[in-house]
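User: Structure tokens for this complex, please. No commentary.
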Amino acid sequence: MTEHSTTPSVLPDVQPAPAGAAGTSDAVSTSVLTVFGQQPIGRIPVLDVQPIVDAGARPTRAVVNELFNVSATVFREGHDAVNATVVLVDPDDAEHQVAMRQDNPGLGHWTTTVFADREGMWSFRVEGWSDPYGTWRHDGTVKIEAGVDVELMLEEGARVLERAIDEVDRPPRHVAILTDAITRLRASAHPAWERLAAGISDEVQEVLAAAPLREYVSASPSYPLWIERQRALTGAWYEIFPRSEGAIFNWETGLWQTGTFASAAERLPAIAGMGFDIVYLTPVHPIGSTNRKGRNNTLNAGDHDPGSPYAIGSADGGHDALHPQLGGWDDFDTFVARAQAQGLEVALDLALQASPDHPWVTEHPEFFTTRADGSIAYAENPPKKYQDIYPVNFDNTPAAIYAKVREVVQVWIDHGVKIFRVDNPHTKPVEFWQWLIADVAVDHPEVIWLAEAFTKPMMMRALAKVGFQQSYTYYAWRNTAAELREYVEELSTQTAHYMRPNFWPTTHDILTPYMQTGGTAAHLIRSALAATLVPSYGIYTGYEHVEWRNRPGAEEHLDNEKYEFKDRRWGQHVPGREDLSGWLTMLNRARRDHPSLQWLRNITFHEAENDNFLVFSKHGGGAHDGSDRDTVLVVANLDPHHVRGTRLHLHLPALGLGLDWDHRFRARDLVTGNSWVWDRAPYVRLGPGYGQEPVHIIHVTRD
Amino acid sequence: MTEHSTTPSVLPDVQPAPAGAAGTSDAVSTSVLTVFGQQPIGRIPVLDVQPIVDAGARPTRAVVNELFNVSATVFREGHDAVNATVVLVDPDDAEHQVAMRQDNPGLGHWTTTVFADREGMWSFRVEGWSDPYGTWRHDGTVKIEAGVDVELMLEEGARVLERAIDEVDRPPRHVAILTDAITRLRASAHPAWERLAAGISDEVQEVLAAAPLREYVSASPSYPLWIERQRALTGAWYEIFPRSEGAIFNWETGLWQTGTFASAAERLPAIAGMGFDIVYLTPVHPIGSTNRKGRNNTLNAGDHDPGSPYAIGSADGGHDALHPQLGGWDDFDTFVARAQAQGLEVALDLALQASPDHPWVTEHPEFFTTRADGSIAYAENPPKKYQDIYPVNFDNTPAAIYAKVREVVQVWIDHGVKIFRVDNPHTKPVEFWQWLIADVAVDHPEVIWLAEAFTKPMMMRALAKVGFQQSYTYYAWRNTAAELREYVEELSTQTAHYMRPNFWPTTHDILTPYMQTGGTAAHLIRSALAATLVPSYGIYTGYEHVEWRNRPGAEEHLDNEKYEFKDRRWGQHVPGREDLSGWLTMLNRARRDHPSLQWLRNITFHEAENDNFLVFSKHGGGAHDGSDRDTVLVVANLDPHHVRGTRLHLHLPALGLGLDWDHRFRARDLVTGNSWVWDRAPYVRLGPGYGQEPVHIIHVTRD
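Assistant:
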């Protein structure tokens, strides 16, 4: 029987408060609680800490300097004042306290905004505490005003401030302020109101806020917080098939001359020149010949069809080898170096499947599923079969497969690849990715994994939870303003603490009806939205040329590049052909110039009277000194076929520049350079066609 | 500095799967995961298990035989079939498996209904697993129908069934069914469709469902489940002031003769006769004389004012003593015995506060707060003071106070009290209650605690989470149909797995405007709703007489019984006085006769065209053989001033008797004995005034 079950207890080791700490119930044994499945609730209950992932079983995620909210329910019995603090613990175990504020007293809901300033494993917790000064300030004010216990309350105020000096380290200047207040509280010759005023002055309150007198401090559990480099959140991707870049069709022989790493590298300056951050290469490994697919995914390839780079492996090698026609390792290394010299990172496809000719098939048949007749199982979606592909069966010999994949990944890391775009991760065990990503991160925490998981929400979320830094999304299929708003609101709030979206208008596998029918306007709109709604987006090469023709009946390009070479004749004038490279350059420049476009959780949607319009703004979102914050407002007409006008209803305070509802502001359009003075309800008119602006990308400043 | 913090880790000890179990990644070390704050996600991810409390930090609660839903998100990579099981672990560590069903494949949401059949500490977990038979059944059917791999798929089916015999224990009759199916699958002379049919027959599927072949079983964490006696959920309470029961006013002397335990016991047959389950006594301890309150909470009591029983403690003793005028321990024991003989449990008030005359004040001044002038602090809500009361300061010497209260509680347990109604628990530390309730439960798991926590939601919920079996609620202030529906939906779903409501139309402290102005109709309606909406409800004595007069400006009875004696002249005819004892008897009889009224999570609300009507049904809700399930439908006109009519829109399938939308049913009114045949949209007319029925309580049966 292969069945087994593991039952990890959810209960952490109970760590009672240190014995002997004054004024708490430390002296009471809490061991009886565990009999009834109870963890100690703490002197000051701290519950519902957010944002956490799977109750803390997996880390909360953010990138360096990314602002995020921490909240908790904190309350106590009786009338005394309660307070709360976030404690961030950095990778060196140094603690950083951030004061919280109560935004809903009825629900005991406390919140604040925090960030972590460097990469690595942090943790955070929320501490609830009783606030003796806050209690005295309230009670003393109320009672002295009512003439109750006047002398007593003033003396008790002096004693609280004495404790604030004795029990908390604070600078001499602050001690002096408190000492002075104590003297005044006890100045019995003076009127009571004056003595009270000395104890509750702004100055005293600021001193106490800077270093509060905290009593009965009760900590929530400690939650893991994994801080990654900013590229894990933010970047502009550009996808190429290396063999196409520099490929030439010979009209005399009817044969193709393949592109190579060397010829593909010639394209890098143009990609970098458009402002992209990452050049993503589809697989560069040897391609199998058994059951090779022909053009448009046909079953019988011709002699000269190059085959799908996703049918990996031949006598020339497998996942750790280069397709010999692309070049050797020196050529690959040169490509990576030239990309880096242009400011581009190289991302590589990781597609864990084998052609029947992959070396693993003979060396490690146990990596695959053997059927009742002794044959190796093809990939299937019954009754369909994919006969150029053997899927890896991770359950046959997991330790050996894990180790082998880890070796493969290390080969590419050693050749300068620090970003992997993972093909169909949702067809491999989630626990495999969890292990692989962690094992790589031990020595290479800079490595970034993008999940190509076009699948159900729970799988996409689980892949993010176990380590993928980014995920492809449903963006391509969210085309109306209402759909986009709902989806981006979900991504920027509900799941932003563990899943980071990457928006692609098209890929080599995806060409939606909107893109097939919307022409140039659709391509302008969808790239602009992808580039501004979220901090990571990607463009599949050829987008500049509005390659809109689909294979009939499929949401996919006609003549899919997976099965053939493409010569896009870059830089040549082709009559009637669009060139959106200027548009993409403008988008990437806006993203670089405007820090607010580099963050995820800082988006606000606004209203338009016409449902075809999507209106949103982004403000701030990173770091702590305010220097990198600005505001960008995007207004898009999503109808690629018609010019449309609408009145907008802008939430001016949400623009984040101190604007109030009745203010005006300067709106400078980054698309056209035009500039207007707008109020909260401007009328806009946007239309399809390049030059007619389907989108405003507006830098907002105070007029 | 009194500050300190504890940081229990949220991470359990990671328990990797047992090494060597076939077909899983057990051989892979998961230790690297902890570096990144990752707990192993398991071969088959199982996430979002519900219902749990504070991520499992506190137990899920239910009573014996109470049905509740367990759900989880369970999914796997690829196309293979996944399945899920709830495992209940009883107090003797025996495991009980319950199959789950997928109610939302798109979200991977699995659910089932479970119950636990005896008291004690259970646990539960959800196991996700790969389902080889389910995979084969799907793939085999699809491929054989398409003519793909026919012989291979039939052989693979035979092999799956061989594993189902070899790897899982099952009765000989089931083995025979599978063996026969294997033979037929391999009967190559027969047509493929016939052989396939043998492998996917209902009979074979039933055998596999009874004891599935489970592969890569992956368990969620184990969550604590505390099962209590049914009285923790269900009971009808009746509150008395013992000193009033048998109190007599002497018109000649102008003085009262107090009631005693002996005279109060004379009232027990009437309380039992009305069908109540619990008689709840306000405090029975000595009452302080210092700053004693007079009638209507006045500051200066007269010589003969009896004082508030909540100002506990005098030279005669404290919380572990009896008020000498009520009688001695023999009298108390006799009272408890007589109650039990009538089928009544005795509940006692636990009000942890002291009069200035309490023995603790001199013996343990450290139990209280000493002010800067050396005086002991009165209870306060600044600037108001309550000078007949000293609150206990649990932080001064927690261990000693905890131990003292524990001793007090034991005194009453030893005298037969197993239910405590706790006065104002939200003014004492939550962690104190957590400890006290657990410590008592070690030897007395039958003890039930009712929290009188009229306070903010997070505190009410926290008290329930840490151990209180029941809580008073906002019921008294939910008076419209919309308010009641929203509130009961919350209580019966969101919090029902840890907090059990107790509904009181009035208490000795609460008389809402609805009750002050609604007269007899209000008293009929509110008692009927309390008795039927939730399984626990309570009546404060005198309710029978519609004691509606309030102290001006307060939501409280005039001449509050806390400060004086009451002689209600039970059994005497008082002209013009109502007597609702028959009504209450009817309500309690309905509750006893109809099991559906004894459960919380089994309520469904229905629609009425008139907003004054509240319409709900309860069905089933307990045990497992179906024998105790019935359906009751309640229709109430909440307007106590007017007769109103409305058409109802009943969700007939939700009535739970197999009724479909177009069926009729028998509606027998338990209030009047009238009986009708109703369809899904009956018209009803209900009105105020006893005898005119403001409420139908309808037993639903199939016509």
